[in-house]
Design brief:
The structure is a single chain. The chain is an alpha/beta fold. It has ten helices and eight strands. 41% of the residues lie in helices and 16% in strands. An eight-stranded parallel barrel has the order 1-2-3-4-5-6-7-8, surrounded by six helices. The longest helix is centred in the first third of the chain and has 18 residues. The chain binds SN-glycerol-3-phosphate. SN-glycerol-3-phosphate binds next to β8 and α9.
């Protein structure tokens, strides 16, 4: 990612973020990033990284990766493959794809070896503190019960943001879950977050371009 604050848009496996629709969505996001000069990155499905990364210029992240090496690891995700496909980094330990501590540590180490940025997710400020020992590039805190909902972390649980800031020390903190509008982003940044993760607020928006512009408006406050 290139500077703060950041908007990281996670495509998850939403239909709107898959295949041709995913590429179209990526191009809309790139257009807004160019027009507004905002730092926007996207996290796409692994099989989509190469195609999308070859067609757009903003950073493309993987949604997961495994801390493995070349060899006999059927079905696992090799860091070198992600890197060669054009990824700038990877999300790790998302609430929807949690990893055991040892696996997470190995994945962060391998990501560093191949020069992929890491966004390590944590469900709570306490978990955020535990993952600081892996020294990821970013720690992202998302209360699972708010993910995909209509009420944001900024509104429902601002204390999770402030407590997480104390947990992560000097590692930049991203926050997410339920983020839908300018006010949600603005409050997160004002509280001290270095950026915001969002998925459904863009993927399920009737007008994604408008939704992205709305979120970007809250970034620089
Ligand atoms: O990775 C971001 C994501 O978990 C947040 O989802 O739909 O609440 O913006 P959403």
């Amino acid at each position: 990612m290139v500077g703060n604050p950041i908007l990281l848009i996670n495509f998850k496996t939403y239909e709107e973020g898959t295949g041709d629709r995913g590429l179209k969505m990526a191009k809309i996001i790139e257009k807004v990033a160019m027009e507004t000069k905002a730092n926007i990155a996207i996290a796409v499905q692994i099989a989509e990284i190469q195609r999308i990364a070859s067609e757009i210029s903003i950073p493309v992240y993987s949604q997961h990766m495994d801390g493995i090496h070349y060899g006999s690891n059927t079905g696992w995700i090799l860091p070198e493959t992600i890197k060669n496909a054009g990824a700038a980094g990877t999300i790790l330990n998302h609430s929807e794809h949690q990893m055991k501590p040892d696996a997470l540590r190995e994945a962060v180490e391998r990501a560093k070896e191949v020069r992929l940025k890491t966004v390590v997710c944590a469900n709570t400020p306490e978990m955020a503190k535990q993952v600081t020992k892996f020294s990821p590039d970013y720690i992202a805190v998302e209360p699972p019960e708010l993910i995909g909902g209509t009420v944001s972390i900024s509104k429902a649980k601002p204390e999770v943001i402030t407590n997480s800031l104390k947990s992560v020390g000097s590692i930049p903190l991203l926050v997410g879950a339920g983020v839908k509008n300018k006010e949600d982003v603005k409050k997160a940044i004002q509280l001290g977050a270095s950026g915001v993760l969002v998925a459904s607020g863009v993927m399920k928006a009737l007008n994604p371009e408008k939704a992205i512009k709305e979120l970007v408006a809250g970034l620089n406050v």
